[in-house]
Amino acid sequence: xxxxxxxxxxxxxxxxxxxxxxxxxxxxxxxxxxxxxxxxxxxxxxxxxxxxxxxxxxxxxxxxxxxxxxxxxxxxxxxxxxxxxxxxxxxxxxxxxxxxxxxxxxxxxxxxxxxxxxxxxxxxxxxxxxxxxxxxxxxxx
Length: 141
Description:
By secondary structure, the protein is of the alpha/beta class. 45% of the residues lie in helices and 13% in strands. It contains 6 helices and 5 strands; from the N terminus they run ββαβαβαβααα. The protein has a 5-stranded mixed β-sheet, sandwiched between helices. Helix 2 (48-54) links the parallel strand 3 (32-35) and strand 4. The longest helix has 14 residues, at 97-110. The chain starts with a strand and ends with a helix.
């Protein structure tokens, strides 16, 4: 998967998985998916939610607009993280930018990560990037 990051034995993040990769995740024991990317044919599966659910995994869809991440998006993400607390989880978006931003904020707020840990996690994907809208969002959180 594009920009795949294994956080721990229970949690991974990535860019958009293909249908075959979603099937492989289910076969590997993943039990839930959180998707932060808006549907964008032809880059996203036609019915990702239906496929994921047919594979026996829980599916949470939070379509975060790239140019307008909101506090409500992050609150929905926090709720989805709490709902999947016991699951083996993939969190994905288009390229793992939204996800690493949201997860680093979540880990700082709920898992005791330091600012430096959050920034290091995000830097795996974001290094060299310049997205002022996202920097403002992150600072606001």
